[in-house]
Amino acid sequence: MYEKYKYHVLMHFIIFLWGFTGILGKLIELEAVFIVWYRVLIAALFLAGYFLFTKKSLRLESKHLWKVTLVGLVVVAHWITFYYAIQLSTASLGILCLSTATLHVTWLEPLVMKRKFSWVQFLMGCLVIYGIYFVSGDFTQTELTALYIGLLSALCAAVFAVFNAKLVQDIPSSQITFYELSIGFLALSVFLICSDQFSYEQLALSGSDFSWLLFLGIVCTSFAFLVTIDIVKRLGAFTVSLSINLEPIYTILLAIVILNEHELLNANFYIGASVIIFVVLANGILKYYQENKKNKNGVY
To answer: Is 177 helix (H, G, I), strand (E, B) or coil?
Structure first.
């Protein structure tokens, strides 16, 4: 019993860390593209050390390489647009936009995973759109730009989540993550060099930025990923998926406490946010009970 509760506490700690990544977009004084460059570099190096220490194989079949490469590029695009949206507006808006990934998963999963289309989830997605409309009612042009970029980030998040779910059927998840981060780092480095942005001045770090980036790359990315693998084995994928839906709540609470964002956000934002968070949680609960019903009926 104690062991099970221990993993529940650990799971919420990991979700808390993921919620904190949005806050770091405000705390780190670098442009979004450089935050992501350092994040993938640090996380990939840490995972490489993990593979060396555990002596696990990094061998990847060539037929899977192009798929992992494409998803790795989408991961980088997701993080860049996510941090850019936050820097244009607030961490609360960035994470709220990310919640709309649920809508995109609704139509992506039937296409990629060959699953039945769910009209219930589609209607929930429409409610999310209503929540976004409510949130953005009196936005400035800059805030609207941040909203559109945040919604693009959510689409990227849905794409890599669904395709990773497909890839993990053939490739260990730890290998997928390592290669996606490494490919993302290489691609981003090439982009920065070709756009003449790869310079000491652009990459220079303050002491606080260096500390936050280490925390982001090692703790919030690599460590969180490796621990989540073990948590999923102990508690099950659906329990973890359901709990991850709490991430927007953690981020908004952290933004209020650390960044004082409650002073920047009006009542409409919180009403729309409540609608979106309710739909996200309801969708997770619905999936959880649907899966339990399938298992009880012997359908796998």
So the answer is: helix
